[in-house]
Amino acid sequence: MGLTDRQWKNLINDIRQERCILLLGPMLPSIQLPGSTAPMLITDHLAGVLKKELEQEEIDFDGKLSRDAEYLAQRYLLIPFTKEIHLKDEVANIYAQFAGQIPDVYNKMARIPFHLVINTTPDTYYWQAIRTSSPNATFSYYSYEEPIGLPETKISKESPLAYNLMGAYSDPKSMVLTEAQQVAFIKRTLQGNPPIPPRILEKLKPGPDSAELSYLFLGFNLDRWQFRVLLDGLDINPGSQPLAPRHPKLQLKRRTIEYYTSRFNFHFVHDEIDDFLDELIQRYSSIPEDIIGAVAPNEAKKVVVSFHPNALGYCEALSQAHSQLVRNKEVEIWHRGMILSGDVQAQTESNIRSADLILVLLDREYLANEDIFKYEIPAIIEQHQSGKSIVAPVLADYCDWEESPFQHLQILPNNREPLSSNKWGNQAFAINEVLKSIKRIIRH
């Protein structure tokens, strides 16, 4: 069944009061392969790659489990002269290949200010999505091989933490892939060797005098035994009543539902994940401000556009698209085309350093220009790294942005189709898609 109005209100209040933990499962991240018409789970793609390798090496495996990545990863280790690190390197390369494809569901989640998000896959999609709206967001991960520290910043809505519980693809040896590795991971976490950072544990299971937490589980196949052991290890309080919206590709067994309902007091929500998030976003944003405390009037956000002169047309089109936001005093726009006299470079750098949001129009000319690369880009990256500005690269034309200083940022439009592409049909549609993302950023 769905949530009642009271349950929605309680969930939103828990999020606002930093009492709700978001947990992300392996059935959440999806990718779009070249030539395909529909996204697929990255774990399914991984299984396909491993299956092909096993067939080429003539390693026997159970065909009924040909989509089980954990099982195939275990069989992969039977390939002659193959070590665990070789398997992890192979998988890390696959995750790195699709690191720039942030699924829409992560952008939806990023619109809700969770203070702590626990990810159980090695990707960084959530962190990439949340950095656009929360420049103070931090990332860390657990490694069952060696201790990994946490950033010193306080875990809060203003500085949320995305924490990968089962490793990160940037550190292949930390990843948990096979069932044997999962056993080792569970054993070592329970033994505290190495320990999960105390600040994470304090957030996951506070002391007896603390308020009960709520937990939101997205994308977990709870039929698998590993999650039962993991939840037992985390010692989740049954009074918390964890929520689990329905995954469209998963039908849980009745005994699984009965077990989690009786053991952990799970509430299985009939709504699919996307629909659940849509309603959560709508309800969260519709609560009157006087319920959550006085809110100071927002000043207009300063939006600076950095571009090569050849892209002036795109810059002007984006500026025109912001006209309603300018009239509503939500934003003020600045770009180098507004300079009438004086030192252009000095004025450009000065405006970059006072920007709330920097739009970077990426094309070949922009990335190849020596002055832009020497002066503007370092200032923009410094603003991003210091958290003083949000940086949103916009793909104006086809270029090698994957090798640029902006490779780890969320690229707009979200489908990474350049504004110049004929696939849009009408360029106004492409500009409008970028505008939608900008609205989400400035209104978050």
Helix/strand-derived category reads: alpha/beta
DSSP strand (E) fraction? 5-15%
At the first level of CATH, the class of the largest domain is Alpha Beta
Cα-atom radius of gyration: 23 Å
Distance between the termini: 30 Å
**Percent helix among the residues?**
40-55%
Number of helices: 17
- Main sheet: strands, sense, barrel: 5 strands, parallel
Number of strands: 13
Major sheet strand order: 5-6-4-1-7
Order of helices and strands: HEEEHHHHEHEEHHEHEHEHEHHEHEHHEH
Shape: globular
Give the averaged pLDDT, no decimals: 87
Low-pLDDT stretches: 289-297
How many distinct domains? 3
CATH architecture classification name of the largest domain: 3-Layer(aba) Sandwich
CATH topology of the largest domain: Rossmann fold
Structural description of this entry:
This protein has 444 residues and is of the alpha/beta class. The chain folds into three domains: 5-29 and 103-290, Rossmann fold, CATH 3.40.50; 31-97, no CATH class; 301-443, 3-Layer(aba) Sandwich (Rossmann fold), CATH 3.40.50.10140. It has 17 helices and 13 strands. The chain has helices at residues 5-16, 42-56, 69-76, 84-97, 104-109, 125-133, 179-191, 198-204, 225-234, 254-264, 273-286, 312-321, 323-327, 344-352, 364-368, 370-386, 427-443, and strands at residues 20-24, 30-31, 40-41, 116-119, 138-141, 161-164, 214-218, 243-246, 267-272, 301-306, 331-335, 357-362, 390-395. The strands form four sheets. The chain has a five-stranded parallel beta sheet with strand order 5-6-4-1-7. A four-stranded parallel beta sheet has the order 11-10-12-13, sandwiched between helices. A two-stranded antiparallel ribbon has the order 2-3. β8 (243-246), α10 (254-264) and β9 (267-272) form a beta-alpha-beta unit. The longest helix is centred in the C-terminal third of the chain and has 17 residues, at 370-386. The radius of gyration is 23 Å and the shape is globular. It starts with a helix and ends with a helix. The model is unreliable at 289-297 (pLDDT under 50).
